[in-house]
Amino acid sequence: MLGFKSVHDIVRVDDLLAGELPLLMGAGPVPLADSVARANTLMINHLGSTMDTVLEQVMQMGAYLFQSSDATILGVAGPASAGLEMAVSNLVTPATRVLSVCNGHFGMRIAEMAARAGGDVVRLTTPPFHAAAADDVARELRRGRYGVLTICHGETSHTVHNTALPEICRIARAQGCLVLVDAVCTLGAMPFQMADWHIDAAVVGGQKALGAIPGVALVAFSPRACARIEARREASAHWCLDARLAADFWLRRAYHYTAPVPGILALHEALRLYCEETPDERFLRHRRCSHALQAGLRALGLSFAVEPGVRLQTVLGVRLPDGVDARALRESMSRESGVDISGAFGLDIVRIGQMAEQCRAPNLLRTLRALAAALAEQHYEADLAAALAVTKRLLNDAASGRVRLLPNPPSGYTRMRDASVPAEEPEVQPE
Ligand SMILES: *Cc1c(COP(=O)(O)O)cnc(C)c1O
Q1: Residue 5 counted as domain residue
Q2: Whole-structure pTM over 0.90, yes or no?
Q3: Which among 106, 158, 159 is the best mutation to test ligand 1's pocket, defined by most ligand atoms within 8 Å of the CB?
Q4: Residue limits of the Aminotransferase class V domain (predicted)?
Q5: Residue 425 covered by a domain
């Protein structure tokens, strides 16, 4: 039975999207840069010399993005979750003991994937809105002979940044345990060093910090992870996600399945924009925008779910004033102002993204205006003028822009600047 009487009842996409597109300021997907959007409209042969060049460059830029010169990078036609499933299902076999650090929804999702792959999974769960402590992980790692540890660099649901990740990776490495990191909401927006931190599998999706589209993801495996995969005797149950088969296409340029061509082109352009901006400048932009927005939100009278030290800078978990209904607020922002922000899997917060193109001054100001208007509808009068003023001041304050990204800046961060352009060191400023 057809669900409609005539095709004329179907509204064209062009008409559905007539007028301005909503400004996506939630936890993903994010607005696309024009050149990324254009790349995503193009179709070429999935095999052949042009695609060879595209893939070759995606690999080169991917190595730079992950900061690893010896990782094997594979792509997957699918959401970041498929990238995670690819990493998990290639490294976890029915004999594998897996320690899954869970700070929320996405940490739990990886644990579930590991359990479905037959792994013997122990979940190390943090209290709500808390980061993982290296000591707790060390204690649990000593207790069992774990083969794989899984963890989110940023846990998007609880808006927590696992700042102890490098330390946790060091501990796991000392125990001979592989580390699988979900970097979906952090890679591209803040420092991440696959090789220096001894990460064995890292996953990023297109749709968040990278500023590309949903439905394509990259998975990077360290040489140790590759050796584990090569040594596997039983075939993975997932034909599409089998790393050894995927290497046919991504490394040997032969057919595995028909690759998501426009998605790969969009990813290529998003990576190119990342390299062109340079990591230093890009991280600075993210940090500056997130700080300016946080100040604006505080000026509106709002607070945050997570303490500053481990607050995820790319997705802010915002507590609303008593009596303000989150769903009604989000609907009003979308309807009246064309600004979309996210709920939080039933948690009592709303989430506002600061990833890729979300981190632009006009987007921040528009979000604050939309938020203030929606709060006013629920009889909460926020000081919008003060919020806009402090946000603008911090956005334009060169000093605030020069705040260092990490208290301890990554020493080995490979630069891709022209030799002729001297890399200037940002001054260190206290927060
Ligand atoms: C969004 C997100 C995912 C899932 O991404 P999909 O593209 O929806 O599969 C996984 N992990 C983290 C940390 C995320 O933020």
Answers
A1: no
A2: yes
A3: 106
A4: 43-342
A5: no
Q: Cα of 184 to ligand 1 centre, how many Å?
A: 6
- CA–CA dist 163, 180 (Å, integer): 15
Q: Which residues line ligand 1 (CB under 6 A)?
A: 28, 79-81, 106, 152, 154, 156, 182, 184-185, 205, 207-208, 214
Q: What angle do CA 77, 162, 160 make, to 5 degrees?
A: 85
Same domain for 251 and 157: yes
The answer to whether residues 353 and 360 touch, using CB atoms and an 8 Å cutoff, is: no
CA of 129 to the centre of ligand 1 (A): 18
Same domain for 147 and 233? yes
Instruction: Tell whether 91 is covered by a domain.
Output: yes
Q: Residue 10: inside a domain, yes or no? A: no
Where among 277, 309, 334 does a domain terminate?
277
Range of 63's domain?
34-277
Q: Examine the domain organization and report whether 226 and 344 are in the same domain.
A: no
- Cα torsion 225, 229, 233, 239 to 10°: value is 140
Q: What is the pLDDT of residues 1-16, one digit of tens each?
A: 567 888 998 999 999 9
Alpha carbon distance 324, 380 (integer Å): 8
Which residue from 185, 213, 345 has its CB within 8 A of the most atoms of ligand 1, so it is best to mutate?
185
Residue 143 is labelled as binding a ligand: no
- Residue-wise pLDDT for 236-264, tens only, equals 899 999 999 999 999 999 999 999 999 99
Q: Whose CA is nearest to atom 14 of ligand 1?
A: 184
Which residues, listed in sequence order, are joined to residue 210 by a DSSP beta bridge?
none
